[in-house]
Amino acid sequence: MIKSIFLLTATALAISAIAPIRSSAANPATPLATLTLAIPDETSATDKCRPLGTDDLKSNATVVLDRSFLDHFDVGARPDSRWMRSYFRPHSVEAAHTHSADEQVVYVDEEFSGAGRSPLGLNPFAVTDGVLTIRAFRTPAELKQVLYSRPYVSGMLTSKNFFAQTYGYFEIAAKLPVGSAVWPAFWLVPRDKPSPPELDVFEVVGKEPQNVYQTTHWAYPNGHASCRNAVADLSSRFHLYGALWTSKYIIYLIDRKPVGITITPPHMNDPMYIIVNLGVGGAWPGPVDAATPAQSEMQIEWISAYVIRR
Prior knowledge:
Layout: E1 13-15, E2 34-38, E3 50-51, E4 62-71, H1 93-96, E5 105-107, E6 125-128, E7 131-138, E8 152-154, E9 156-158, E10 164-165, E11 168-175, E12 182-190, E13 198-203, E14 211-219, E15 223-231, E16 239-245, E17 249-254, E18 257-263, E19 272-280, E20 295-308
Parallel strand pairs: 1-15, 5-8
Antiparallel strand pairs: 2-4, 3-18, 4-20, 6-7, 7-8, 7-20, 9-19, 10-19, 11-16, 11-20, 12-13, 12-19, 13-14, 14-15, 16-17, 17-18
């Protein structure tokens, strides 16, 4: 997840609206076990994120993918045991449930006790009709002291203890919130070493309600390649956000259409795991203010990963 504001390395592209995922023939309600994607010529990749359009797909090149992970959120009323609900930072409870000093949210579940001794019963997760909702909302005034004085609570999921993969295609079907200081994200970091590298499949900052950022990081804070694309209805319809990661290049996709390509950094070659979170406040999205929604929701229909068929 991007730690600070950065300069764009690509121009914005417009993404046309698609039908909601559940009713779209092009985007079936269950991700396919085998998926074929149209891809551009890999030699077009540089250390910048180069925007892609229809002309880049004239070579008719494709990649065949076999599914390696799927959570369709169709069992139970909460995310299952494949997911941790905090960062893996065993040295500090506060650090495990917060992203950085400037982000203004605590990641909780109903068992989290914060700085206290008893579970607080705050649940940001709900699963209804196969859709996971992650909710960010104002910290109850009476709990602020035990929640590190942060003004919002929210939810996050990480697959660190269950699933990680080197190379492949990673995808989420999601409807995203917007609003001042709101910061939803879907990203990958290494399982066995510190980040960077980092691969941001998508990030949205609420002050730019139509823009999706997709970024490869190789050094903090300034070593990155980023594409920005306009998705006019990202908060009203489900869209597919994906990244195809190979040993040579990374292709970013929206609704399975390639929209950007960059080279893979030399040290991005170890297993990476999934993080999905709904952040609030920070150096990039800006601080919480009077315009920040009292409650915001990110809805997720599925999270999936694929290996590249050899």
